[in-house]
Amino acid sequence: MVGTPCACDRQTATIYINPILYSKLPPFERKFWILHEKGHIVLNTADELKADKYAFDKLAGTEWRSLKQMIGALEHLLDSNNSFHQERIDHIYNLALQWDKTHPVLNGAIIAGDDLKEMFANQNSTFSNLAALMGQMMILNKTTTEENIQKKDNTLVLMALAVGVMLIITKFLG
Predict the structure, then answer these.
(1) CA 85, CA 78: separation in Å to the nearest integer?
(2) Class of residue 107 by CB neighbours under 10 A (exposed 0-12, middle 13-18, buried 19+)
(3) pLDDT, tens digit, 9 for 90 and up, residues 4-54
(4) 120 near 130, Cβ under 8 Å?
(5) CA 31 and chain centroid, separation
(6) With 66 labelled, which of 26, 103, 136, 154 sits at a CA distance of 20 to 30 A?
(7) Cβ distance 60 to 66 under 8 Å?
(8) Rg of the chain taking only CA atoms, in angstroms
(9) What distance in Å separates the CA atoms of residue 104 and residue 156, rounded to the nearest whole number?
């Protein structure tokens, strides 16, 4: 198990963990690699791309930045100078772009915008309009480009900061 955080025996449906490498991984990457190994077992395959996709399908959209975290899990452990490793990284990257294209509102961002609008509706129309605008910012670009994943992350950060400022202002005005 040199160089890998976990491995499996498909015949016995056993996953083995390398405690040295596994313990150094962030929690999301641990989930990814365990699900990757589970994919080998469930699909009864030695195909790394299929096991990667199994983990991807289980984790996509389950938490904030899940797509980026999966790409990071591969980039963290695989050598991009190795053509097969780069193929695996590219495969997950392309799955992430496809998933993002079919899920343009990023885990309920429209709902978040509506929730913000309702939260500030009782304050005044300026807050209400700002909250509605922030909800719309999350869904402006429904087609995904390579840069769009980063743009959506940046928009989430800006939205969180704006909400914080609105809450502070409301507290002082309230």
Answers:
(1) 6
(2) middle
(3) 999 999 999 999 999 999 999 999 999 999 999 999 999 999 999 999 999
(4) yes
(5) 12
(6) 136
(7) yes
(8) 20
(9) 13
